[in-house]
């Protein structure tokens, strides 16, 4: 929960695109992008695990690159294009990565899953035919405490095939 009770109120105007929609807000200058997404936009699919850049659960894509949204300020995201897990499904249909996760049991508790999927989305956008090793590297900042890694890798390779067949 965002709280800076003892700090002077410093608000800034931000304008950014989130999941294809332009949004504008006046936000506290120290609010993180993760807090902005969850608390201002109610996009709670982005999870906050450690809140200090260590677990990857808050990963979103900003201007094409995966970023840890707990380490980016909302004001730094102004003028940028942000994609979150909510932006992947379209017309009621899951994204092929999401489908492959379901079909391959690539999650258990699911807490790491949104961040994991966003890292994988960024990988497949720049490398449509990744090897197992490429997948491992792309998620080396995403911790899964349930140990779903083997199925996550399998799901990613399957998702890449599905996307390439389209
Ligand atoms: S919540 Fe951002 S890296 Fe853990
Ligand atoms: S599925 Fe539980 S942390 Fe990854």
Description:
The chain has 166 residues and is of the alpha+beta class. The chain is built from five helices and five strands. Strand 1 and strand 2 form a beta hairpin. Helix 2 packs across helix 5. It is globular, with a radius of gyration of 16 Å. It binds FE2/S2 (inorganic) cluster (FES) (2 copies). The site of one FE2/S2 (inorganic) cluster has 12 residues, from loops.
- Give me the side-by-side strand order of the main sheet: 2-1-5-3-4
Instruction: Tell me the strand percentage band.
Output: 15-25%
Q: Give helix % range.
A: 25-40%
Mean pLDDT: 95
Largest sheet: 5 strands, mixed
Listing every helix as H and every strand as E from the N terminus to the C terminus, the arrangement reads EEHEEEHHHH
Point out poorly predicted stretches: none
Secondary structure layout:
Elements: E1 11-18, E2 21-28, H1 33-40, E3 59-62, E4 65-68, E5 81-83, H2 96-103, H3 113-126, H4 132-138, H5 149-165
Parallel strand pairs: 1-5
Antiparallel strand pairs: 1-2, 3-4, 3-5
Could you list some keywords that capture this structure?
5 helices, 5 strands, globular, alpha+beta, 5-stranded mixed beta sheet, binds FE2/S2 (inorganic) cluster, 166 residues, 33% helix
In a few lines, what is going on in this structure?
By secondary structure, this protein is α+β, with helices and mostly antiparallel strands. It is built from five helices and five strands, in the order E-E-H-E-E-E-H-H-H-H.
């Amino acid at each position: 929960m965002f709280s800076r009770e003892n700090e002077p109120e410093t608000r800034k105007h931000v304008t950014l695109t989130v999941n294809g929609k332009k949004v504008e807000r006046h936000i506290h200058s120290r609010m993180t992008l993760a807090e902005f997404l969850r608390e201002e936009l109610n996009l709670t699919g982005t999870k906050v695990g450690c809140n200090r850049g260590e677990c990857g659960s808050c990963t979103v894509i900003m201007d094409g690159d995966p970023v840890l949204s707990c380490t980016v300020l909302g004001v730094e995201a102004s003028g940028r294009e942000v994609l979150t897990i909510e932006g992947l499904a379209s017309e009621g249909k899951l994204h092929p990565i999401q489908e492959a996760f379901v079909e391959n049991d690539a999650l258990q508790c699911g807490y790491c899953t949104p961040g994991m999927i966003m890292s994988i989305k960024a990988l497949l956008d720049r490398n449509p035919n990744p090897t197992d090793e490429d997948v491992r590297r792309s998620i080396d900042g995403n911790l899964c405490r349930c140990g779903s890694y083997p199925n996550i890798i399998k799901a990613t390779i399957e998702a890449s095939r599905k996307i390439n067949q389209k």
